[in-house]
Design goal:
This protein has two domains: 14-111 and 233-300; 113-177. It is globular, with a radius of gyration of 22 Å. The chain has twelve helices and two strands, in the order H-H-H-H-H-H-H-H-H-H-E-E-H-H. A hairpin with a 5-residue loop joins strand 1 (217-219) and strand 2 (225-227). It has helices at residues 14-23, 27-45, 59-83, 89-110, 114-141, 148-164, 168-173, 180-186, 191-206, 209-216, 236-257, 261-282; strands at residues 217-219, 225-227. It is mainly alpha-helical.
Length: 301
């Protein structure tokens, strides 16, 4: 385990905050807190399972949790790289949905029992087994002759299954994972978050009319549509919602994996402090494109 907490970024200063208030543009400071939250996520995901503060947890289950955290951190940092010049809002919106889904799944796993980790593993492997079945049918129809690409795919699937610790029978008999709405309910998060994360987020993933209108088209005074140029700025909402919910997932991870409440305290206070800074900025923010952002503390509890 690392000995020191990563320092608060030096460029988050009172002067920057005052400049944001003067210009009514809070993107610069929220961008820095978003980036810091991604670094914090990576830091906590790097706690060694052999650390004396970590409970006895099966390595594969611990691996799933830190893998989800690493996914959140790396995708957040990818968003930083994409949006630092104010572009790629359409792409970062797609990535946001992946980040939030990972954070919610982690929170759900931390609220459940060992069986749910097995369900999580099996859920992803069911599609691999279906693929394996199709490859085997192709081989059978080809008089048992195996193509090189088929062998590589079968070997890859076998490796995933072996690493999982489950048998094919275990995977086939496993219950389906609950949907995201049910996971949110399990961790006492409001239905509003499901609407924002899953339903509204799906616009950007699936290319619905709302997404096309927002990111990909322009309409002139004659009602004619043309291609929008590559100038989509990220929404300020993204820099608020994402870090707040990822930080909430980090708190659940700490409580689930770290021994004793005394060891939790420092981590939780640190994470609460970061959330408080973001929520404090949010009090000043009015989104230029939408209604004022209303991120109440009780929404993330």
């Amino acid at each position: 385990m690392k000995n020191e907490l990563p320092p608060t970024p030096q460029n988050i200063t009172e002067e920057l905050f005052e400049n944001c208030i003067s210009s009514n543009d809070f993107m610069p400071i929220l961008f820095e807190w978003y980036k810091y939250a991604a670094i914090v996520c990576n830091y906590i995901a790097s706690i060694d399972i052999k650390s004396p503060v970590i409970k006895k947890i099966k390595p594969i289950y611990y691996g799933i949790l830190i893998g989800l955290l690493n996914r959140c951190s790396r995708l957040m940092l990818a968003n930083i790289a994409l949006t630092h010049k104010g572009n790629f809002g359409e792409t970062s919106s797609i990535i946001d949905r992946c980040i939030l889904e990972s954070a919610i799944k982690l929170r759900w796993l931390c609220s459940q029992n060992e069986d749910c980790f097995k369900r999580f593993i099996a859920d992803g492997l069911k599609s691999d087994l279906e693929f394996k079945k199709q490859i085997e049918l192709n081989i059978e129809s080809n008089n048992g002759q195996i193509l090189a690409i088929e062998k590589r795919m079968l070997d890859s699937i076998k490796k995933y299954i072996t690493e999982s610790g489950l048998t094919e029978d275990d995977i086939n008999k496993s219950k389906k994972l609950p949907d995201l709405a049910s996971m949110l309910e399990c961790v006492d998060m409001e239905r509003l978050l499901y609407v924002i994360i899953q339903k509204i987020g799906s616009h950007h993933v699936h290319g619905t009319w709302s997404s096309l209108y927002l990111h990909y088209l322009e309409r002139n005074e004659n009602g004619i549509y043309s291609l929008r140029d590559h100038d989509c700025s990220p929404s300020i909402n993204q820099y608020i919602w994402i870090p707040l919910l990822v930080l909430e997932a980090l708190k659940d991870f700490i409580v689930f994996t770290v021994e004793t409440e005394d060891n939790h305290t420092g981590f939780i206070m640190w994470l609460n402090g970061i959330q408080k800074e973001i929520l404090n900025i949010n009090e000043y923010v009015v989104d230029k494109d939408f209604e004022p952002i209303n991120m109440r503390e009780d929404l993330i509890k």
